[in-house]
Amino acid sequence: MPDTMTEPSRHILGSFHNALEALKSNTLMMASLTERSLHNTAKGLFERDEDLCNIVIADDEEIDLLEIQVDRDGIDVMMRYQPVASDLRQVVSAMKLSVNIERIADQAVNIARRVRKLVLDEPLPEAAELKGMFEMSTQMFHDAIEAFASGNLEIARGMKARDKELDAENARLANLFAEKMPDNHKHLHGYLNLIFIARFLERVGDHAKNICEDVVFAYAAEDIRHVSAAKSATVE
Prior knowledge:
Layout: H1 6-46, H2 50-81, H3 85-118, H4 131-150, H5 153-180, H6 188-220, H7 227-235
Helix pairs in contact: 1-2, 1-3, 1-4, 2-3, 3-6, 4-5, 4-6, 5-6
């Protein structure tokens, strides 16, 4: 006797996975645009190109619209298919991913606005010190998206340590730029802008770490957000 549930089940399962793939596709499109914005802010700063900064600011609207679409699609998927367990975690992860991507895009806009101010004045040689932070933060974001797309838990679990390195570099540069201020009153605002850019890049790293925490939860059902704090509390 044929199993009458087989075909409908396959149809429902296929429809859900198609909807989930469409949801992921939009988040990855957001990620691609945002990564381009980070690259453009870096080129804008080091090549003193104001036009690239304007492109970053203009692209932010498209990223915002994609976030709204991902949010709507995610809610629609949950209401229509009522996923559970790992399927539900996948949907929630994609929705949370879009929030973190949008916030990284906002940091790119913040950097672009600071760069536009910097290019109006004569170049500051110390701006070159930011190249390392741009490379670190952009690569962290790229790897976080790769972890999401492929379910790579090794990359995801290693992101917290990389974020601490980025935090340390931010602190080093903040001290470096602050030390230049007392003897360079003419460039006071310039050094302040460099401090802000470093801080914005540090926040990019924070969001990359958040993405990876969500990846671990989505694929391994494990909450690693407060692992260190939990261990410390256990020891005490």
